[in-house]
Write a structure and sequence with these properties.
This protein is α+β, with helices and mostly antiparallel strands and about 200 residues long. About 35% of the residues lie in helices and about 25% in strands. The chain has 5 helices and 10 strands; from the N terminus they run H-E-E-E-E-H-E-H-E-H-E-E-E-H-E. Strand 5, helix 3 and strand 6 form a beta-alpha-beta unit. The longest helix is centred in the first third of the chain and has 21 residues.
């Protein structure tokens, strides 16, 4: 009897975990605004109505996982330029993640996309983001966006040459080809973003 109770508890926990991790998929995303440290102008989700989709990537100045992904993100930005808009978002509230430090880091990265200072964690709460690097691929439909894919960029943050599943790229291709998402909710690996 004891083993059966444990089995039921584990099964129920897995079911609850599945519900928790898939709640946002497919839901409409509310508009948000945040300061772009690249030009000190506000950027809103509603600014991007001409692209096929939009990638919101939660990143930081200091998390080592973000540094592992810099070259891969640069390649994706170049590959999908004009079709998929990328937004980098920093929701960390530690002093080394302030807007001035973000601007210095942005200049080192040389990524020609907005880098948003989300210090009130509006974007983070809107998408229920928890980690860096965590990515959300948004699909534009009828003037609004919904979550098409969320989770990890790929299955090997530390060694780009050993990636066997490029989740983000595969789902960008799916979105552009009007196919369904695959592996649409993977677990991101990285640094936890502390809530205010």
């Amino acid at each position: 009897m004891y083993w059966y109770i444990q089995y039921r508890m584990i099964k129920n926990f897995r079911f609850l975990l599945l519900i928790t991790t898939t709640t946002l998929f497919g839901q409409s995303v509310q508009d948000f605004s945040a300061l772009n440290v690249a030009d000190n102008k506000m950027v809103s989700l509603s600014n991007y109505q001409s692209c096929d989709g939009l990638v919101v990537l939660f990143t930081s100045n200091a998390c080592p996982y973000d540094n592992y992904y810099t070259d891969r993100i640069h390649s994706l930005i170049e590959k999908y330029k004009g079709r998929i808009q990328f937004l980098l978002v920093n929701s960390f509230i530690e002093p080394k993640e302030n807007a001035k430090a973000m601007s210095a880091q942005y200049n080192k990265w040389k990524l020609a996309v907005p880098y948003l200072a989300d210090k009130e964690q509006v974007v983070m709460d809107c998408l229920d983001a928890k980690k860096s690097s965590e990515v959300f691929l948004l699909k534009r439909q009828n003037g609004s966006y919904s979550i098409f894919y969320q989770g990890a960029i790929d299955d090997n943050p530390q060694v780009a040459s050993d990636v066997s599943k490029a989740y983000l790229q595969e789902n960008i291709e799916n979105l552009l080809a009007q196919r369904k998402a695959t592996d649409n909710n993977t677990r991101p690996v990285g640094c936890t973003i502390r809530k205010k």
